[in-house]
Amino acid sequence: MDKVIKALEKNGFKASIFKNAQDAKEKLLSEISTDESVGIGGSMTILDMGVYEDLVERGNATYWHWKAEDKKAALENATTTDIYLTSSNAVTEDGKLVNKDGTGNRVASMIFGHKKVFVVVGRNKICKDVDGAFERIETIAAPLNAKRLNLTTPCVYTGVCSDCDSKDRICKAETILSKNPNGTSIHVYIIDEDMGY
């Protein structure tokens, strides 16, 4: 993981290692002031950490479509917040963030529009290279997410991406962040635990 941290920093990202999710959450909350608005992208890692509840309880204006009655409004509000929280489908050993997204809200907000972006990933998402990252997405992340969402994509049944044309397809936008984008400050938190898909 030290090698990955150094590679991320070389690529302009801020990067830290945490021994567990609780330590990462405490640091994350300390980095966000109570007067800053927070948007959250779809992430089992963020869900399992319980960060949303802590932010709401202490008074941060927080927008997450997973927790909102009006999902469309939450998605729109999350695009203009001070802070954005999410995870990444994969992080490569040479410091790239690799993702596939269905709606595009998550990957768009990782790239542009926020003062700070925090990308929280478990050690299970570290891959050797971009090819390994896409293999991970197509055999682990996408099938498990499609199953969680009760979709009828082929990968739900086969466990492997078939580049389908299903109406339920969740892999529609691919991004590789090779370097930290101009005007965005991305902080990558790597947790020494398996987290999310």
Task: Tell me what you see in this structure.
This protein has eight helices and ten strands. The chain has 197 residues and is an alpha/beta fold. It has a single domain (2-191), classed as Rossmann fold. The strands form two sheets. A six-stranded parallel β-sheet has the order 1-10-7-4-2-3, with helices on both faces. Strand 5 and strand 6 (97-101) form a beta hairpin. The radius of gyration is 16 Å and the shape is globular.
Write the layout of secondary structure elements.
Blueprint: H1 2-10, E1 14-18, H2 21-31, E2 38-40, H3 44-49, H4 51-58, E3 62-64, H5 71-78, E4 83-86, E5 90-92, E6 97-101, H6 105-111, E7 116-122, E8 126-127, H7 130-148, H8 154-158, E9 173-177, E10 185-191
Major β-sheet annotation = 6 strands, parallel
Helix content: 25-40%
What is the CA-atom radius of gyration, in angstroms?
Answer: 16 Å
**Lateral strand order in the biggest sheet:** 1-10-7-4-2-3
Task: Name a few traits of the molecule.
197 residues; alpha/beta; Rossmann fold; four-stranded mixed beta sheet; 22% strand
Could you give a short description of this structure?
This protein has one domain (2-191): 3-Layer(aba) Sandwich (Rossmann fold), CATH 3.40.50.
